[in-house]
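Methods: example folding runs. The two proteins below were folded one after another, and each record is reproduced exactly as written to the output file, sequence line first and structure-token line second.
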Amino acid sequence: MTKGYQMARAFILAVAVSLAIACGPSTGLAQTPQPPTFQPSGNRAFDEWRDDFARRAVQRGRDPAVLARLMAGITPDERVIELDQRQPEFVSPVWDYVTNRVTENRISSGRALKTEIQSTLDAVEARYGVPQGIILGIWGLESNYGEAALNWDAQTALATLAYEGRRRDQFEGYLLALVEMVERDLASQGQLRSSWAGALGQPQFMPDVYLTTAVDWDGDGHRDIWNNRSDVAASIGNYLQDRGWRRGEPVFEEVRLPDNFDYALADGTQRTIADWNERGVRRIDGVSWPGPEWGLQAQLFLPAGANGPALMLYHNFGVIRRYNNSDRYALVVSLLARAFDGRGGLVSDWPRAAGSLNREQILELQTLLNGLGYDSGNPDGLFGSGTRRAVRNYQSAQSLPADGFPTAALLTRVRASAGITAPEPARVPRGLQRSGIRELQRLLNRQGYRAGTADGVIGSRTRDAIRAFERAEGMEVRGRATDVVLERARAAGRR
């Protein structure tokens, strides 16, 4: 080695040693940032969840500084919990659901918006292949074309629902996505206005959907689904295209069924239009099935049973359901789209005289069908595909039209099959007045449920105590101060 090389090598080693001394011993691993610290919120259980969530979020790569800003000062919002737990005691008939949403006001407002932003809608439709009417129908239902108020800070709503725990993993995921939105400067903290469930902006995207699907249509550097109507329209179009929208294909057609039709065919099975045509199914407007549609597949849908409209649902109807998993929702969007285009609604009348079952009656129907051997799934008072299948199987066994639609007459017949002549009256829980709440708080405290001061005021501690009591007693966990909970607490106190 040359003398110059040796001197250079010695110099480099000296510098390396100096740096090592200055930096201290190396572990060979990058240090994980420390999670943020927060001031106590006054709710110990929430603080424990919040601190643990922040720690796990930092471990997953989220920025501690952004977490600190977003979650500072948050306390659980009791209104959010109440809305999340609120289940309607009466499920409106499909005809009321449709009529109350396909309104002249919503149609006229949609047409006016279409006129205002026609060029944008033309370009969005050309890009994504989704008809303008479908985009406007979703827009109108989700936020009344941006007129609906967004009354919550998204981080508060999402943190409340994550802490509440019923769907913790789901809402923690949304909250992580919200933090990432701010980290990437996709939205400022002040923009994050949402529904009570944390759905963002005019198209009501959850934060994870925003990250993957929201569009900066006008190229201003922001995906502004709160104020920028071109971004809103493009984001809805992009969502549907991404979920499988097929350009140029129809959504649904109303059809007329032949006499003595086998209603059990309305079981969700996809068949070609040529197959349906051979079975005597015809378009209700009398027009022949167009040639290109013969190879399309569709399912027969009877939203109100054998005595109501019959619809042929194509693939794109199911894509609308990806936005909101409801046949009723997809039907309303489709009817609004038709109205925007100047087309009429459904031709067939709704069977209003047949009536509709409320939630307690559906719960009874499910329980009875299960007892008779027709598996409707876990009784929950909601009429889903499992219950529809059980109803259809029962109807077939009874030589009834197997349309899968629950009516009062059907419930009466199921009761008779189960040997029940009259239903037991349902007990409807009543909310307590302040004195009753105080008594309940005292009883819960004596039994170790830590309801806080017996002041007759429902706060987070009292709700948490009620939920803990309900779980221990095997009751439905609602967290509400009702006469039913009070009676059970009295009985528990006498044990």
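Second run, written to the same file directly after the first:
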Amino acid sequence: MPRHSALESILRREEAILAPYAAKSRDATRLKPEAPQGFRTAFQLDRDRIVHTRAFRRLAHKTQVLTPSSGDHCRTRLTHTLEVSQIARTIARALRLNEDLAEAAAMGHDLGHGPFGHVGETVLNSLCKGGFSHQDQSLRVADTLADNGAGLNLTQEVRDAIAKHSKGQGPIFVGAPRGPATLEGMVVRVADIVAYLSHDMEDAMEAGILCVGDIPLEILEAFGESSETRKEAIVTDLLENTRERDGTLALAFSKGMERDMGKLRDFMYRAVYRNPKVDGQMEKGAKTIKAIYKAIMEDDGLYQGLPLRRLADNRSEAARDFIAGMTDRYALNFAKGLGEA
């Protein structure tokens, strides 16, 4: 079958199978218009562009919550990303949404995360002019920094989902412009939450930071003891409470699930994310980032040698781009070269 015929077949299949409110690949737009390429839809092409970047490969060596010293099986940013992608695809398929869009956005959602987990994000936010957020940096990687400064020219739909995947302290389900413009983007937002609420506890238990006896009974009753039962409980509740409304889909959890997820999240902050053992692991990472940032801001030779300095508007932004792109081990080795071992 000719390539253009294969692509047209896929596009027609989307029209026949996907819900009316699902994003269609045929309607995807880019900042820089492109002609259809081969047999892949626009969203499939975005996924492949993301997966083949160096920024994506570096996620394998960036901490999720616990450092590699905690054990061989703790999640990294890469394994977290893969889990988010699979959860997002599962939800999208069940709701007859566009799996390819959900997958592409999930694969790109953490491209901008720096080294040393959330501590790295907090430190960069405190140091950099204009602050730092991993979702904004993820979009900057996709638009500007990837491919040695050429950018990926992703679709607007994937860009929007990447930029708005993180809910912070706010509600999960919010409409555009604060929330994602597509239902698939909202699915990625949910999948990210499902993934970290499920797997961060498992990692903490495997690392000896938590045991089953530490978990409140009400959380065990709501979610079970394993990562799999937690994911199953949350996704099942979402699918059971999502309804068609006014020609679109209203994603929703039950009131009980919203309450229980809040309790689980609060427990994880108390018992894991702010645990002295975790803070101790991350202390060296925080010092490392501060030392590298200080050196770049003060050493003209170091600053002039930054590989993508030409793409930054100021020195602080160049330092931010450089540090956010580092893996944990590269940052530690770079700091040793500065005499900050």
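Comment on the second run: The chain has a mean pLDDT of 93.
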